[in-house]
């Protein structure tokens, strides 16, 4: 039934792939996670599904739920290690040596079983958490509008407001924030692997510090297409980065 549904979406609605939320559960067998599980095999062997993108969020909350890099060839995976190390580096909490492996599609995680760099889906922000603009504007989450007294959403954001919590009129603070946004975008789009860009990050969309806005059908979660000059300038920067982008094989350090 599940495979029939996936085929329907691929054939009838022409979607080009699927991202599986909490994807580890797809490979959980009686003895735990198994990257040769029936479902994973069925997808990669199916004549329709093996022609579309299959992307796993490679973790869930069950036993042995964290499985980044453990899915088989034919599957791509979100790489949260890239997110965490890039955020820490540009905040000043990690060094270049911590970042280097993430820039080349994390071969320590993905260069196995004939997998390609594209199996590594790099991201800095996603639908859960801060937008890129908010990552450089807030030290802390501001989820009061969600009605849970700001208890919901993660507190581990690795963010930095660069001097003032929230929007600022300070020219120097805004200059640093805009530079940091460009640093993040350049790191994402010029790294090996498959980049994933959160909608609106290309024009500095904000959720006003809310990092758990799934429950909001308000301006907090909407995309405002009346893009300001700051956003238009950022879009042009992103276009230049995508023009520069290209994929190669894994880079592996060797002794001279």
Question: Could you describe the 3D structure shown?
Answer:
With 256 residues, the chain is of the alpha/beta class. The protein is 32% helix and 9% strand. The protein has helices at residues 2-12, 38-45, 80-91, 96-103, 107-110, 132-135, 171-190, 229-244; strands at 17-20, 28-29, 32-33, 53-56, 76-79, 120-123, 194-196. Strand 2 and strand 3 (32-33) form a beta hairpin. Helix 3 packs antiparallel against helix 4 and helix 7 runs parallel beside helix 8 (229-244). The model has no long low-confidence stretch (mean pLDDT 94).
**Binned strand content:** 5-15%
Low-confidence spans = none
**SS element count, helices:** 8
Number of strands: 7
Task: Quote the average pLDDT.
Answer: 94
Radius of gyration from the CA trace? 19 Å
N-to-C SSE series?
Answer: HEEEHEEHHHEHHEH
Main sheet summary: 5 strands, parallel
- Share of residues in helices: 25-40%
Ends: how far apart? 54 Å
Shape estimate? globular
Biggest sheet strand line-up: 1-4-5-6-7
Q: Which class best fits the helix and strand makeup?
A: alpha/beta
Pick out its properties.
256 residues, alpha/beta, five-stranded parallel β-sheet, two-stranded antiparallel sheet, 9% strand, globular
What's this entry about, in short?
The protein is α/β, with parallel strands linked by helices. The protein is built from eight helices and seven strands.
């Amino acid at each position: 039934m599940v495979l029939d549904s996936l085929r329907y979406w691929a054939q009838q609605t022409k979607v080009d792939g699927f991202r599986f939320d909490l994807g580890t559960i797809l490979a959980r067998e009686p003895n735990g996670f198994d990257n040769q599980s029936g479902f994973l095999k069925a997808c990669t062997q199916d004549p329709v599904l093996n022609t579309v993108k299959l992307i796993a969020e490679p973790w869930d909350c069950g036993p042995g739920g964290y499985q980044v890099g453990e899915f088989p060839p034919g599957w791509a995976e979100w790489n949260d290690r890239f997110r965490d190390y890039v955020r820490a580096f540009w905040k000043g909490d990690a060094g270049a040596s911590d970042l280097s492996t993430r820039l080349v599609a994390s071969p320590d995680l993905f260069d196995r079983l004939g997998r390609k760099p594209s199996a590594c889906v790099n991201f800095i922000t996603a639908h859960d958490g801060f937008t890129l603009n908010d990552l450089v504007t807030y030290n802390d989450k501001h989820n009061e509008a969600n009605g849970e007294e700001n208890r919901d959403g993660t507190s581990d954001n690795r963010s930095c407001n660069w001097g003032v919590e929230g929007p600022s009129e300070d020219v120097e603070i805004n200059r640093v924030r805009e530079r940091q946004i460009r640093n993040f975008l350049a790191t994402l789009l010029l790294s090996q692997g498959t980049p994933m860009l959160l909608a609106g990050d290309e024009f500095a969309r904000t959720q006003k510090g809310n990092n758990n806005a799934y429950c909001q059908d308000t301006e907090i979660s909407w995309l405002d297409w009346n893009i300001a000059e700051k956003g238009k300038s950022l879009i042009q920067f992103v276009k230049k980065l995508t023009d520069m982008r290209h994929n190669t094989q894994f880079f592996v350090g060797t002794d001279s």
